[in-house]
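Inverse folding, one chain.
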């Protein structure tokens, strides 16, 4: 009984970042790396929320713009713009995606008591994309369900990017698939942002 009660009150850490003026966060265990925004290669026939692909240690990783995904104007790239490398589930297998964010702010620890159900309206993010609304002090943070934000069907579309390394181009458009990963969660602080990933 005591163990069950301890599980219910266990806190979890979230990486907080800014998206078009909104404070958002994803579970720290889904974060693999935080990178400075670098060259992203555009790929034809992709959804507008796919900025393109980037080279990550020899692997091709799709880069997603969440502001466009949420129906907001594309954010300009600044010196604080980052690409957060996250792990998502693709057909039951781990896959790596890059997510463009305006700025990484902090790692936040929240207990279950600090998390409210997703609000049905009043945010720029669809309620079904949210795990909940985190509260800390007099501020709120949108806790994103990254697997729903990058749903299986949409992931398959974006993930067709990486096979350009393995398959010849057809009609001038390369095929590709999201980079599979067995990377363990990193514990080192990111050299650019100082945030533990």
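Residues assigned per position:
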């Amino acid at each position: 009984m005591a163990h069950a009660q301890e599980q219910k009150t266990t806190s979890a850490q979230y990486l907080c970042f800014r998206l078009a003026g909104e404070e958002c966060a994803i579970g720290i265990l889904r974060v693999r790396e935080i990178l400075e925004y670098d060259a992203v290669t555009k790929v034809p026939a992709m959804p507008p929320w796919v900025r393109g692909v980037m080279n990550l240690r020899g692997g091709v990783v799709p880069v997603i713009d969440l502001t466009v995904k949420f129906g907001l104007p594309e954010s300009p790239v600044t010196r604080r713009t980052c690409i957060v490398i996250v792990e998502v589930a693709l057909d039951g297998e781990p896959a790596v995606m890059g997510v463009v964010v305006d700025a990484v702010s902090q790692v936040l620890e929240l207990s279950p008591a600090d998390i409210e159900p997703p609000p049905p309206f009043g945010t720029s993010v669809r309620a079904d994309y949210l795990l909940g609304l985190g509260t800390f002090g007099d501020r709120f943070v949108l806790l994103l369900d990254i697997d729903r934000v990058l749903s299986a069907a949409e992931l398959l579309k974006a993930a067709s990017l990486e096979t350009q390394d393995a398959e010849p181009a057809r009609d001038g458009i390369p095929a590709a698939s999201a980079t599979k990963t067995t990377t363990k969660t990193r514990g080192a602080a990111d050299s650019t942002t100082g945030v533990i990933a």
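Residues 23 and 143 are 9 Å apart (CA to CA). Helices lie at 2-8, 66-69, 146-149, 152-159.
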